[in-house]
Amino acid sequence: MSGTKILIVDDEQRMRKLVRDYLIREGYSVLEAADGRSALDQFYNDGNISLIILDVMMPEMDGWQVCAEIRKTSKVPIIMLTAKSDERDELRGFDLGVDEYVTKPFSPRTLSARVGAILRRTMGTAAQKHLEAGGIEIDKAAHIVTIDKKPVELSFKEFELLQYFMENNGIALSRERILNSVWNYDYYGDARTIDTHVKKLRSKLGDKASLIKTVWGIGYKFEA
Q: pLDDT of the chain along its 224 residues, tens only?
């Protein structure tokens, strides 16, 4: 994905340089912003940013505010960086539409792997471009979901979760298997993250929410 553009937003110059240098070596094109307002200006002025790495704690406008503003108009993948490891902060990030959540200190190599995983799923196209089951249709290339031909707005991670469920129609999936498959790396957080995402996904599927069934003691199963 050489040339893919990534925006790094962090008020610590040392942290920006660490991440920037590693991503550039991986072939990415990197933009930087030292505060939230500058980040929004760059994002809207450029129009070609594929992913944002966003720090939470910044003066004037923090990462939560930046994320909320961007989510009003865009589903661009966002990786949130934070010095905290509080589960409430993580859930807040997911509620705002954050796609990944990385706690400082972290390995630049690990962060780069997560960037690559997200971009491959966002920008890549699989052999099977369309999925359809129970009145739900997914256009994987265009990243569009429709229910009975009507479009449904999903976050990046909600889209991936629904896609994974539909690709495994009729199969009981454990929370750990869902985390490792949808998040695409060994997840060291709480598996209840899945419950939060499933709850939000069901709320957006309307009458089709019942297609995602809870398998007690295991996880979930999509059945159409």
A: 556 899 999 999 999 999 999 999 888 999 999 999 999 999 999 888 999 999 988 887 889 899 999 988 888 999 988 876 655 666 666 677 788 888 888 888 888 888 888 887 766 544 457 888 999 999 887 788 999 989 999 988 899 899 989 988 888 888 878 887 787 554 555 667 888 899 999 999 999 999 999 998 888 999 98
Q: Give the DSSP per-residue string, the chain.
A: -TT-EEEEE-S-HHHHHHHHHHHHHTT-EEEEESSHHHHHHHHHHH----EEEEES--SSS-HHHHHHHHHTT----EEEEES---HHHHHHHHHHT-SEEEESS--HHHHHHHHHHHHHHHH---S--EEEETTEEEETTTTEEEETTEEE---HHHHHHHHHHHHTTT--EEHHHHHHHHS-S---S-THHHHHHHHHHHHHHGGGGGGEEEETTTEEEE--
